[in-house]
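Q: Here's a chain of 127 amino acids. Please give me its 3D structure as tokens.
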Amino acid sequence: KLRKTILDNLPEGFEEQMSYGMPSYVVPHSVYPAGYHAKPKEPLPFISIASQKNHIALYHMGVYSIGTLDKWFRSEYPKHAKYKLNMAKSCVRFTKFDDIPYDLIAELVRKVNVEDWIKEYEKNIKK
């Protein structure tokens, strides 16, 4: 259901692929030929999901690098979830599928389009 929520709300231009053993949503080389700065042969990452030993992880690079998006997500989360937010820099952890606030994740996914993500990435990479 998490993958479907992401796919149903992913802005145009992002593509789904397997990356680092996880379903990932990236800016393909056809849109951003430079690729990821650390590994230019890899497309620019945006979102990944993984089933870890004790949790389901949602990795969202926009939450990590866009301060206003992080602030928005942290303030909205308690309105949509039963449990306290368990989050690292770009990783939101859920212990049960039933605990995932799918409507909030859908809104989060829609908030950043490809063009805005590339601009934000380039702004941060030059620091």
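Q: Can you summarize the key feature?
A: The first helix runs from residue 2 to 9.
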